[in-house]
Amino acid sequence: MNRLPRTIRDGFFHGFKITATLMKVVLPVYAVVVLLKYSPVMPFLERLFRPAMGFFLLPGEAVMPLLAGVFTDEYGSIATAVQFDFTTAQITTIAMICLVFHSIPVEFALCQRIGLPGGKLILYRFFAAIFIGFVTARIGGIYL
């Protein structure tokens, strides 16, 4: 009988710690994206990246969640993506690209630290993300 209350208490505190950790990433990214979205920088970024995003059948503003995913993690990408009106297929494409190519600065530093060729790993993941994004965009347009 004593185990259940302790388990519930421990689960609550672990859940609270995880939520606090995620909020340290999500809230600042969300705030920066809101500021960028309504600034003159956003139309410039949209025009600049529209051709590249078109390769993945995405609008120009999709560059924001992709960049957030590359430099932070999936949670930063999610916090960014909710600011825009993407379709289900577009969200799926963005998610697949970010799942392959995320947290690059952290992973590059980790590779360097343990002696792996970080540059090769990043190039591999970059091209894998392009391939996955291209395929997902084409399949998503059919099935989603």
Account of the protein in words:
The protein has helices at 3-37, 41-55, 63-71, 74-81, 88-100, 104-114, 118-143. It starts with a helix and ends with a helix. The protein has seven helices and no strands. Helices cover 81% and strands 0% of the residues. The relative contact order is 0.11. The protein is mainly α. It is globular. The model has no long low-confidence stretch (mean pLDDT 89).
Give the radius of gyration: 18 Å
Mean pLDDT: 89
Helix content: over 70%
Structural class: mainly alpha
Q: Outline, from the CA principal axes?
A: globular
Tell me the count of domains.
Answer: 1
What is the element layout, followed by pairings?
Layout: H1 3-37, H2 41-55, H3 63-71, H4 74-81, H5 88-100, H6 104-114, H7 118-143
Quick overview:
By secondary structure, the chain is mainly α.
Based on the model shown, name its key terms.
144 residues; mainly alpha
